[in-house]
Amino acid sequence: MSQPIYVGVDLGGTTIKVGLCDEQGRLIRTFEGPTEAEGGPETVLDNIERYVRQLVADASYAWEQVRGIGAGIPGFLDIANGIVVTSGNLKWTNVPVKEILERKLGKTVHINNDANVAALGEVWSGAGAGYDYVVCLTLGTGVGGGIIINGKIYEGYIGMAGELGHIQVVPDLEGVQCGCGQMGCLETVSSATGIIRMATDAVERGERTALASVEGGLTAKDVFDAAKLGDEVALRIIRRAAHYLGKAMGTIAVVLNPQRFILGGGVSRGGDLLFDGVRESFRKYTPEASSRGVDIVPALLGNDAGMVGAAGLCLKQIR
Fold first, then answer.
1. CB 3.0 to 4.6 Å from 110: which of 48, 103, 135, 313, for a disulfide?
2. The pTM of the whole model exceeds 0.85
């Protein structure tokens, strides 16, 4: 019998990444191309078909060896029926992705939220390998979340579980409005966007900081770099981001009691400066019974997590 292979599609607003995985979650080969979202669902789904077929052909596998195809998609999904209900990044409404791709590719297709599949990838063959109860937080433009319970993605009643960036942790008098419309969400302080906002506010207030001399627009990396050099304003911002992230994780821990938290995304590359603060805050806000044995680690798969996890949707359980 020929070796079974699985295809994972990481669908982004500008780029589609496709990866070929074996049954152990090892990434064999990848391919990427433009999303061309402006062309609408038909153009995007045609591109996915073309990229997937190209990937398999370039890797010299027979099409018959493909056992399934998974796709991680940003937005609100009707996972059971394979429909993208709404996706702001893609500007889609009620697109039956599963049905269309199965017709185009002649293979079983599974879809799920992009943050969920990134979590699944880390559990399959990344920082969560060997763990059945894991919570992943992706710290990028926003704060995404993925919950793995007993080795499987926890989706919730209507597929909205894991919106961890919208836990309200900042006190009312200090909170700012989040993109979701609520005040004081974790995303407003612990995402790259939140860190940049706090840094920009400090510069505009005239605080003495090296960040005031940065040209071309501040980035979260600028803030981390300044903090590592001892800039007090930058240090305060990073400590605040870490404080609220650890506090939110304490809330998650008493509800879900995971074995491991995995932090990914660009902000997670802040290293010990971020992780030490997160761990300290987590211990402070979490009862010992809920924090005992729980560790907090960086993600391992980086930008590959979405492809690996999407391929993992094809398997009924993590191996």
1. 313
2. yes
